[in-house]
Amino acid sequence: MWDFLFTNVHLATMADGYGEIRDAAIAVKDGNIAWLGAQADLPPGAQAVTVHDGGGSWLTPGLIDCHTHIVHAGNRSDEFEARLNGATYEDIARAGGGIMSTVRATRAASEDELLRQSLPRVRSLLAEGVTTIEIKSGYGLTLESEANMLRAARRIGRDFPVNVATTFLGAHALPPEFAGRADDYISEVCAMIAPLAAEGLVDAVDAFCERIGFSHEQTERVFQAARAHGLPVKLHAEQLSDQRGAELTARYHGLSADHLEHLSEAGVAAMAAAGTVAVLLPGAYYFLRDTTPPPVAALRAAGVAMAVATDCNPGTSPMTSLLLAMNMACTLWRLTPLEALAGCTRHAARALGMQRDVGTLEVGKRADFALWRIARPADLSYAIGLNPCRGVVNAGVLRAPQV
After folding, report:
1. 236 among the known binding-site residues?
2. What residues does N-formimidoyl-L-glutamate bind to (predicted)?
3. Fewer beta carbons under 10 A from the terminal one: N or C of the chain?
4. Any known ligand binding at 72?
5. Does 230 appear as a known binding residue?
6. 364: burial class by Cβ within 10 Å (0-12, 13-18, 19+)?
7. First CA to last CA distance, the chain
8. pLDDT of 91 strictly over 90
9. Is 311 annotated as a binding residue?
10. Mean pLDDT of the chain
């Protein structure tokens, strides 16, 4: 006896291409997918406690936003205005703005306040069929403040119908108390990993390898500390310049290298060899009015999996729509709608190391899926500002898209 059964749906399983199964059904038992296929092939005598008529909806895996900074305090609309008046991102950062502006606001906020300010952003994603969110720290830059951010992230996963993967991003910016002592701060970051991991707050470790961030050598020290604690790594790489961060990430068999606007041929080859996912973040590219796109054609030719995410953050991508990110990836960088949807499902799961549990509709995987009022899967990348989500199942629990 299944817990529930959806009939009269079309499936985009995303296991191989769209993996379309029309006139289909899908069954759930104990929070996992128990059966799926053409409705005409339902096993004789199959029964479920509850049967839902999907009304001809398309059903996809729950969307996965695999790169966000969604837990933070304050906003930086003043910097948005400054950039429109001629300041560059690096000008603002070197003048004490940028990431440090959010650090000051986040340090001043309690865990409860961080949660309160973050929930509107989380709710926007959940309303669009998102069932998994990666949440980074990186706006505290002290052990206490980083822990507050990560605890708030864990609470989101406990209190709301969404699976949360947490990433420690202590090496995000150099705090003022360490001015001129970047190596000393990296030692502090490495020392933070043990207590955060011991509290169960960290699923992966990230860093910002950039001229206004941390060097290749400093980043490697963070990776070594993560490896010592059995934690996978990922990296903000090649966003503003080529620092060979993607190559370093691949050498450590990192889950993903993210941004990649200035990725070299050597970086592409290294990622392909290591199976490191390229996480594309069109929101930041758009918001900063960048003109150097990531090498999508080279990544595609090399067989590098490409994920797509919002990069939700207050300074460079204040975006809480993964559907919009999909459209931007197609429009700005010529991803196909299939690549965009795979980038928010199958490949996004790989970027979090969660591909065994989520990202495709397959028997045995967690029952995370979304129902859509669309004519075909490509519609999810096509429309701008339209949310066709009509329902979400998260870990086998059906909910309305608005939570």
Report:
1. yes
2. 139, 313, 315
3. N
4. no
5. no
6. exposed
7. 29
8. no
9. yes
10. 96
